Give the backbone structure.
Amino acid sequence: DGNFSLPMPEHAGPILIRAFGTSSGYLDLATGQPVYFTGDDELVAYLDYDGHSGAIYQDISVNALTTLATHLGLVYQAGGQTLGAAMTRAYQLFGKHLERTTNPNGVDIARTSVSNLSTGSSSDPPKSIFMGLFHIGLSRWGAWAATSQGLARTALPCLEVIKLIERDLSSGVLSGRDEFGAPIYATPNQAVSLVTNTLRIELAREISRWLASMPLPDASVTANPTSLRPSNFTVAGGFFDALALDTSELFSAFDPTVSVDAAAPSISFVSPTGGSDVAGAVTISVTASDNEGVYSLQFAGGQDWITGRSSSVSGTSGHLIGQLDATQLPEGPLTLTAVGLDLFGNSQQASIAVNVVTIPDGTIGGRVFLDTPVSNVNVEALDFTGGVRGAVLDSMTAQDGSFSLQIPFTHDGPVLIRAFGTASTYKNMALNLPQTFTSSDELTLVVNYGSAGDGTNLAGRSVNAITTMATRFIERKVATGALGLDEAISLAFQLLGSHLDRPGTAPYGLNVSTTTVSDFSGNPTSDTTESILLGLTHVGLSRWGADIALSQNLARSSLPPTAILKLFLRDLENMVLDGKDGSGATIYATPNQAVALDSYTLRNAIAQSVAVWLDNVPLADGTPGQNSTALRAANFATEQGFFDDLCMDDSALFPPTSQHQLVPFDRNPPVVTITAPTGNPLSPADFNVLAEAVDTSAIRSFSAIIVG
């Protein structure tokens, strides 16, 4: 069992105790593996024995330190010193290497229970603790060197490390070189070699790592079975400092920058902050820093409700991320704890207290409409973070076009409202006919919910053709990198909003005093000026589509407003309304390519279509005008009003005015002149009536009535 008692004949003088044997073995506490002696392995101890006095020597320890001290003593003797003086000097140097006289022990014994490092584990004295740690340090250093080079962790056991250090001591000092000055390599690939600090800072580091049960480079972990931890050795000038800061003649040189790191890492919670309220999905962010290096940063045990854990360490810093779903936890106080470990095994724990709260979800409500509200329409709210359509947040079917969608209180950012469905219907007010969505029809609206969030309720939002054009504008600006999302949203609504009501012009240009209910909103008894202008714009799309279809001998309902809207969405692919798509190709409204979009379509063409509808001008196929409201073109006679806002828009929504002329809206009637017959009285014979009509824009129809 390693215990020995050797009877001694009458003898006076030095004795060498030698332990050897190929069947000898021990448990390597650094790797948890058994290790056996080879044929050339031995441990020795020197004893100056005086048998004449009948002395009995007990508790003689034969170990790595006595082996190295004996070897050094023999080197000193070979250099000319007497054996006794050489051995005394060598044993003093190695003894002080573990325990300097400046701070005997250097271990917090009050915090140390049985350590299992000596035979008498129930009464380990500090010296046996130090001796055991010294051996574990040699074993751990060998295992680190081996596994760092892809070798088995038992490839360089403590006995082999002792032989390397004996070679180093052949020169009389620990320098990492043998008696001939050649480097001493620990691994066959010569990637790891001994240095003057191997038995100082490197040994202290590996002991500290083993105390903290830190893994080897091959990720294997041999748990420290003792009650000792690095925190037991934080006494200044103690065990670790005795190792790392030894300036004795045992070493060839001293690096004044070398020191043992007894300070634990500094750990900080970045988010959430202590004392804050947390709700829903919460990201936990923790950082760590250490002057010598961060080894690991983890959440303390018992926090299974923290998911999505990710830890990264680099040099002197570390970062830890985790996810917390507060909806799965009861309301009230909650403690978050993280633990950091540095390269020397020093650990630190940090905690913060937060308060789990419940916040109700928010809503976005409003109505979907074109000429009139769209009934039986599917409406959904999508995450629009980054200007890209994401996950569905909520959905519903709006029977009368009215919707209210639930937005999770945790959502902070833009939301895209999308309306679609082949069962969706609305009234085409230009034709007085019901129309139905196709599978490719949709209306959209971007709501910047980021500034709201936290259960905010937003109401009165309109999803229509204009907001759909704004969405396309936003998506293209973001996708091309021309603008950030917030800037794109702001610009889109500014441009399309001012298209109906330009800043600095007469507000709306609508004579509201002569305006009664218009039926454009879902609640005609409370039509606002804004809803009237939006309704008229949609009617303009419907009437323009009907006129274009009839001009090419198509059915008057073959180009509904949803089809016209798709043309404008194609036009906005290049982020300007110029009648060209994203590739520069002309956009045609009819299959025969007889009618094309241009920069005037959403201006003069739509304005003219609104005007003829307001005045009940029949369609080309004789269909009567279908304006069932009390509004007429006369309500918009104000200069720089609604029609001028449409026609004279010179914003970035359209090509620069250097490429085209702005054409004011024509609100003057044609000038009609009868040029024949002339004279009075008229001849009883047949005669021709000649008349001429002149208009600044166009003559739509011309007829004559003779009465008498």
